[in-house]
Each structure stands twice: as structure tokens, then as C-alpha cells.
């Protein structure tokens, strides 16, 4: 049966639509509400081409995830893929980079963006105590839903995705009648540096799909679900991004700089009046909630998987006897997001995020190349991306280019972080061996 318990004690309940909508939810986050202005101000109508360039870079990485994800079907997503190819040590580093350097810091930042959005309507959200209580209730709700079952967790993600995408589709559909074709013509081609800087920003706007693959141990028929879910989700995101950029550029044109903080809200206001801006503000808040909710559902599986592999504390590998979910991993992860959110620590540590996700992507691409060289049994036919090593090489080249754009503090912070993780790994291994000798 599709939802029978796996060897890990979990249930395979996530299908193609669940993965696709989860990817849409994870990628189309709070940034989309300001992204058209960033691109439009820097590049004008020519900015549409930067979306195409970024989509090629991300498609190369997504195809690697699709191939390796159809082959490695245990929980943990990026961690599971790297661990399967290179072993516990490199898997341990990737787990820390993804879970702490990207997941927790990112969700804590989004939680504060959510509170800041609501503060524009309800100033009480600027009060630290009210803000903290709000975080506690919201994160507690996410944790409870995801402990009660992956089916409930993915159901919530699907609902939120539909709710937040509908207003965006409304802008696209009704905004085209307001588009002025003159605003879509460009007078000059931007410089290579401007194009590169914009592409860098767009790359991170497309990131987030990998989080949804954390529940890789709970996909129905992963050999089919992973490649199709990634493909459908990626195409939907690209279409929505390009159409929103086209409408926003076409409606606002030279006025883009005037509405740089809320370009979509400005378009919505032109379409339906002052209520449009309020609707978009609420949509932004829902979008933030959706992004964190998807993270709370998926990323704890990396803690769970590492615990099962013996590299993280064993209690994180426990499965709820009734709900068949890694409940202690979910609770621990939610608690960490809460404390980082209320402390504001994400602001100081955010410097790690960019390098962390790039290194995770690089490791997964290399893992895909390595596992591809291993022969499979005839009965284990999985998805294989076309073009041989073309797409992995495009992905590697894109990541190296993006890594060279990082600041010295981002690079230094990442080196220090990875060094500390290596020390933790070897200390844990030493203590574990010592305990086993005396057992």
C-alpha cells in the first residue's frame, strides 16, 4: 500500500501534487513581494532575461536532485543524498550547513518578516512580549500539526500555497489589462556586472525547493514522485515569477523606484483600489507562515535521519507510536526556530546562509555524479537526467561563480562554522568509541 510504514517507521503519504505544491510554497516566499522592483530598477524590461538565465542554473541543480532523489529514498533529503555517496562525515557537515546554516536561520528571519508585516496593520506586533507570544503560538501550531501526521502537515502546506498564490494569480490576470506596452521596451542592455548582480539576487529567490525533499522517506513511489514533483513545481514557479515581473514592469514602468518597497501592492492598488494593498500585505504574511510551515514539516527529517545513522543524538530518531512521525525531531527543530526568532540571533548569523546553501547544492551535484557511476540492478530503474554530465557541470559552474561573489566575512564565517562542525564530529566519534569499548 502507498502509505504503509517504511523501514524507518514513517508512512509514504506525499504524492506528486504534495511535493510540487510544497516546492511552490517553499520558493515563492516573502521575497516575491519586492523582487519585481529589485529586478526592474536594476535592469528595466531586460530583467525578464535574467529570470531565464537563473532558471537554467536552477534547473541544472533541480535535475540533479531529481535524479539522486529517485535513487536515494530514505529520509533527510540533501543530507541523505550526500551521506549515501560520501559517508557519515560529509553527510554530517551538510546536515549542519543545511539545518542550522540555512533552515533555522532562514525560518527565524521569515518569522520576523511576518511579524513586521502584521505590525503595519497592528502596531502591537512591535512589542517584544507580544511578538514572542505570537511566535510561540504560531510555531507551536506548526509543530503540533506536523507531529500529528505528515499527511496533515502536507495538507496544511497545500492549503497555504493555494491561499497565497490566488492573489498573485489575480494580479497576473487582471493586471494585464493595465499593462502599457511601452514599459516593456528596453533602450539599452545593462552592463555585465549589473546583470550578474541581479542574477545573484534572483538565484536566491529561486532557492528553497530543496527543503521540500526533507520528507524523502515519505514519498509515494519516490522514483516517480521526486522527478515529476520537482519538474512541475519548478515550472510553476518560473511561470509565476516571469508573469509577475512582466505585469509589474508593464504597469509601473518608470514608477518602479517609487514603489520599490511594495511593487506588487502598488499594482494591486491600481487594479482594485486601496483594498488591494491590504490584501497583498496579508498575502505576504500568509506566505511567510507557509514557508516556515513547510520548513517545520521537512527539515526535522534531516535530524531524524542523522540520528538513525548514529551521528546525531538518538532521541531525535524516535517515531511517534500513533502518528508515525519523528515527533522529537519536529519538536526540537521548532523550539530552535522559536529561540532564534525571539533572540534576533539570526541577524548576526545570517552571513552563513548564502554560502551554506551553495555548498549543500554543490555537495548534492557531486553526490549525483558519484552515484551515477554505480551500476544499478535492472529492477531499480530510476530517473536519469538527459545530456550526460552537461547539467551537473552547468550547476557546478553556476555555484562556483556565485561562491566567488561572496564577501570575505561570508567566506570566513563559513570556514569557521565548518571547522567547528568537524571538531564536533570527531569529538562525538571519539566519545562514542570510548563508550563502546567500556560497554
Short description:
The protein is mainly alpha-helical. The protein contains 17 helices and no strands.
What's the structural blueprint in terms of helices and strands?
Layout: H1 16-27, H2 35-43, H3 47-69, H4 78-86, H5 88-119, H6 128-148, H7 150-175, H8 192-206, H9 222-252, H10 263-272, H11 274-298, H12 300-308, H13 327-343, H14 345-349, H15 353-372, H16 390-404, H17 408-438
Helix pairs in contact: 1-7, 1-9, 1-11, 2-8, 2-9, 3-8, 3-9, 3-15, 3-16, 4-5, 4-15, 5-11, 5-12, 5-13, 5-15, 5-17, 6-7, 6-11, 6-13, 7-9, 7-11, 9-10, 10-11, 12-13, 15-16
Explain this structure to me?
The chain is mainly α and 439 residues long. It has one domain: Up-down Bundle (Amino acid/polyamine transporter I). 71% of the residues lie in helices and 0% in strands. It has 17 helices and no strands. Helix 2 runs antiparallel to helix 8, helix 3 crosses helix 16 and helix 15 packs antiparallel against helix 16. It is globular, with a radius of gyration of 22 Å.
Amino acid at each position: 500500500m502507498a502509505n504503509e510504514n517504511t523501514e524507518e517507521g514513517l508512512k509514504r503519504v506525499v504524492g506528486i501534487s504534495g511535493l510540487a505544491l510544497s516546492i511552490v510554497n517553499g520558493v515563492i516566499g516573502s521575497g516575491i513581494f519586492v523582487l519585481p522592483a529589485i529586478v526592474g530598477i536594476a535592469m528595466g524590461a531586460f530583467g525578464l532575461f535574467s529570470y531565464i538565465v537563473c532558471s537554467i542554473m536552477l534547473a541544472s541543480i533541480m535535475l540533479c536532485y531529481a535524479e539522486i532523489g529517485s535513487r536515494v529514498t530514505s529520509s533527510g533529503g540533501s543530507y541523505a543524498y550526500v551521506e549515501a555517496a560520501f559517508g557519515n562525515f560529509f553527510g554530517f557537515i551538510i546536515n549542519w550547513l543545511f539545518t542550522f546554516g540555512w533552515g533555522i536561520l532562514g525560518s527565524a528571519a521569515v518569522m520576523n518578516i511576518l511579524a513586521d508585516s502584521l505590525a503595519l496593520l497592528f502596531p502591537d506586533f512591535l512589542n517584544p512580549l507580544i511578538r514572542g507570544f505570537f511566535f510561540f503560538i504560531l510555531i507551536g501550531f506548526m509543530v503540533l500539526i506536523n507531529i500529528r501526521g505528515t499527511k496533515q502537515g502536507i495538507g496544511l502546506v497545500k492549503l497555504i500555497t493555494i491561499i497565497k498564490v490566488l492573489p498573485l494569480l489575480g494580479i497576473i490576470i487582471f493586471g494585464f489589462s493595465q499593462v502599457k506596452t511601452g514599459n516593456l521596451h528596453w533602450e539599452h542592455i545593462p552592463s555585465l556586472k549589473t546583470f550578474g548582480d541581479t542574477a545573484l539576487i534572483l538565484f536566491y529567490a529561486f532557492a528553497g525547493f530543496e527543503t521540500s525533499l526533507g520528507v524523502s522517506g515519505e514519498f509515494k513511489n519516490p522514483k516517480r514522485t521526486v522527478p515529476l514533483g520537482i519538474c512541475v513545481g519548478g515550472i510553476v514557479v518560473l511561470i509565476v515569477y516571469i508573469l509577475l515581473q512582466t505585469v509589474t514592469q508593464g504597469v509601473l514602468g518608470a514608477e518602479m523606484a517609487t514603489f520599490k518597497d511594495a511593487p506588487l501592492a502598488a499594482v494591486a492598488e491600481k487594479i482594485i483600489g486601496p483594498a488591494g494593498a491590504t490584501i497583498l500585505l496579508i498575502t505576504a504574511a500568509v506566505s511567510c507562515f507557509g514557508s516556515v510551515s513547510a520548513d517545520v514539516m521537512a527539515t526535522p527529517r534531516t535530524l531524524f535521519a542523522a540520528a538513525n545513522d548514529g551521528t546525531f543524538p538518538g532521541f531525535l530518531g524516535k517515531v511517534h507510536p500513533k502518528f508515525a512521525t519523528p515527533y522529537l525531531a519536529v519538536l526540537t527543530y521548532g523550539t530552535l526556530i522559536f529561540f532564534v526568532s525571539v533572540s534576533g540571533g539570526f541577524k548576526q548569523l545570517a552571513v552563513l546562509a548564502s554560502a551554506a546553501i551553495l555548498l549543500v547544492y554543490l555537495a548534492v551535484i557531486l553526490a549525483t555524479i558519484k552515484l551515477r557511476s554505480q551500476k544499478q540492478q535492472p529492477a531499480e530503474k530510476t530517473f536519469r537526467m538527459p545530456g550526460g554530465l552537461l547539467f551537473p557541470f552547468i550547476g557546478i559552474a553556476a555555484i562556483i561563480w556565485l561562491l566567488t561573489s561572496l564577501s570575505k566575512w561570508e567566506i570566513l564565517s563559513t570556514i569557521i562554522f565548518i571547522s567547528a562542525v568537524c571538531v564536533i564530529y570527531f569529538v562525538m566519534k571519539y566519545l562514542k568509541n570510548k563508550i563502546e569499548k567500556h560497554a
